[in-house]
Design the sequence.
């Protein structure tokens, strides 16, 4: 009850209580904020202390004199202590796709699954692939956990990892495992030393590589000095010996030269100097082997010389160069190694070369004459063939006369084929290649027609033909017939009589291929490089040998294929037989 003379407004007491409660709440909120700030400040202080401690220990490890393994081990131990990790590890890149565990610390032991981790797999490999740090407090449930059983046995629940990167290039990954959840600030602590560890790895790698290169350089210098001394002594002996037969060398009409293993000329005989335009021995000693080789043949010369050094000797045709005129000089050269008589070590290179200029001129003249004669023989031969054909079709001619006419016509047709081959040879060797006239044809049908003709000519032999795909294209029909006929005839002549010859005609969107295979003795390895040269004749094993041929079939087949922009190859192995493979682009132009 209010005292007399006083008046209390309605609800005033309730409002006062609410104000008091609000004030208390504000004070509690301010206290909570102050407490949070204090805790954050304490946490930041602890993080800075951890970072300083970790950076100090890692810096000491990197600056120490130990090698890479010792440095990384100290860094792993430094991570385990301040970050309260159950175990810590550092992986380095062993090759482009594998991380290798190089250091470990803590109470738990890593398993074999941790030793080598593929980049992109598991936690460590994913960090290496993405070049981004990672933290998880759900380690056991993580599908990328390297070894879930190991994590469970060691009661591990958290993992934090950080990539080690130097100038954008991955050097490795460092990671820690913990039995309690890890705060995100752990990554900040790892960030503070990641660059230091990565730089340390790179520095140790560079130091190791520098020591390795220095050792190799010392070894190379020692070997070079020894080889120079041995080479000089051997060269002195060789030159002393050379004076004994100098009269023979100087009297030779062949190029004869000696060079060091570094390709520096030391001697060229008088005939050799005249051939390549060298003016005196002093000028020769200022040149290398390649100075008198035609520039377009430098690559070939290097290959031949390297082969001679490796195998002891190489021979082959190459073009020298006259240093005065620059003109190429075709030669057949024999490069061989001169060896020390006592140690049998190579000490110098020698070259004996025969000038092929006159021989090539004579060959060109013979081929021109051959072409002219072959062309001129065509006219009388055509008259003989025409007369024999008319006589064979004469209805009143006696049977004997018809048989003679048929023999004349058959012989004339063989002569015509030989003349055609000789003319093709002349065109390829002197006229720049065989001309082709493209027209739409079906290569499958063409192959079938040629094979039918060969079956008739070889009644006792089996010739199998298989076709597949589209055989249409624009090629020279008559020339393509030559290719199919020459390759199939070659297989019949050289294959076993009781084994089939297999011909395959295949077409796809880009090309047509022809494969001709026969079983029999393999082609001699020393013959394979020259198999497509003219006048190369093998030894036929069938009843139809190649006595009636000049050995131009494969030469002409290759010329026709190359004129079409295609390729022809041969493989021959014992037990597998011989296979010729032709590829022609499917020409679709006009």
Sequence:
């Amino acid at each position: 009850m209010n005292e007399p003379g006083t008046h209390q407004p309605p609800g005033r007491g309730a409002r006062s209580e609410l104000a008091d409660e609000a004030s208390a709440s504000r004070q509690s909120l301010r206290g909570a904020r102050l407490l949070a700030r204090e805790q954050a400040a304490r946490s930041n202080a602890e993080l800075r202390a951890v970072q300083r401690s970790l950076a100090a220990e890692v810096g000491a490890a990197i600056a120490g004199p130990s090698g890479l393994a010792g440095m990384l081990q100290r860094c792993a131990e430094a991570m385990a202590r301040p970050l309260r990790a159950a175990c810590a590890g550092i992986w380095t890149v062993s090759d482009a796709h594998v991380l290798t565990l190089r250091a470990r610390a803590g109470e738990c032991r890593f398993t074999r699954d941790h030793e080598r981790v593929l980049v992109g797999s598991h936690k460590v490999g994913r960090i290496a692939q993405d070049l981004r740090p990672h933290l998880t407090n759900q380690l056991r449930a993580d599908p990328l956990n390297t070894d879930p059983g190991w994590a469970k046995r060691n009661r591990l629940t958290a993992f934090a990892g950080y990539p080690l990167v130097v100038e954008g290039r991955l050097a490795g990954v460092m990671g820690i495992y913990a039995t309690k959840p890890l705060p995100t600030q752990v990554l900040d602590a790892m960030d503070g030393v990641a660059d230091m560890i990565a730089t340390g790895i790179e520095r140790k790698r560079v130091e190791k590589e520098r020591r390795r290169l220095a050792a190799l350089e010392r070894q190379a210098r020692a070997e070079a000095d020894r080889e120079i001394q041995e080479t000089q002594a051997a060269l002195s002996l060789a030159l002393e010996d050379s004076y004994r037969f100098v009269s023979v060398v100087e009297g030779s009409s062949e190029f004869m030269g000696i060079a060091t293993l570094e390709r520096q000329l030391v001697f060229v005989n008088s005939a050799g100097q005249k051939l390549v335009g060298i003016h005196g021995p002093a000028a020769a000693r200022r040149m290398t082997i390649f100075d008198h080789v035609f520039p377009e043949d430098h690559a070939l010369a290097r290959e031949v010389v390297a082969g001679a050094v490796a195998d002891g000797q190489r021979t082959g045709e190459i073009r020298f160069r006259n240093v005065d005129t620059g003109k190429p000089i075709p030669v057949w050269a024999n490069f061989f190694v001169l060896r020390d008589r006592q140690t049998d070590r190579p000490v110098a290179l020698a070259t004996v070369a025969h000038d092929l200029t006159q021989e090539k001129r004579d060959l060109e003249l013979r081929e021109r004459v051959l072409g002219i004669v072959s062309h001129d023989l065509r006219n009388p031969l055509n008259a003989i063939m025409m007369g024999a054909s008319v006589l064979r079709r004469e209805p009143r001619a006696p049977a004997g006369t018809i048989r003679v006419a048929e023999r004349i016509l058959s012989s004339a047709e063989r002569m015509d084929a030989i003349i055609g081959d000789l003319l093709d040879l002349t065109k390829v060797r002197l006229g720049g290649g065989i001309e082709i006239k493209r027209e739409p044809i079906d290569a499958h049908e063409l192959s079938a027609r040629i094979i039918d003709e060969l079956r008739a000519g070889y009644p006792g032999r089996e010739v199998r033909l298989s076709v597949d795909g589209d055989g249409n294209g624009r090629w020279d029909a008559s020339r393509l017939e030559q290719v199919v006929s020459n390759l199939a005839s070659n297989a019949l002549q050289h294959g076993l009589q009781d084994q089939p010859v297999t011909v395959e005609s295949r077409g796809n969107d880009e090309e047509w291929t022809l494969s001709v295979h026969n079983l029999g003795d393999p082609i001699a390895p020393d013959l394979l490089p020259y198999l497509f040269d003219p006048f190369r004749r093998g030894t036929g094993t069938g009843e139809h040998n190649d006595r009636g041929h000049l050995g131009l079939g494969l030469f002409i087949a290759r010329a026709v294929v190359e004129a079409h922009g295609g390729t022809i190859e041969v493989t021959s192995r014992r037990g597998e037989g011989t296979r010729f493979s032709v590829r022609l682009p499917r020409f679709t132009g006009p």
Observations:
- The radius of gyration is 44 Å.
- Residues 77 and 191 are 17 Å apart (CA to CA).
- The longest strand covers residues 328-339.
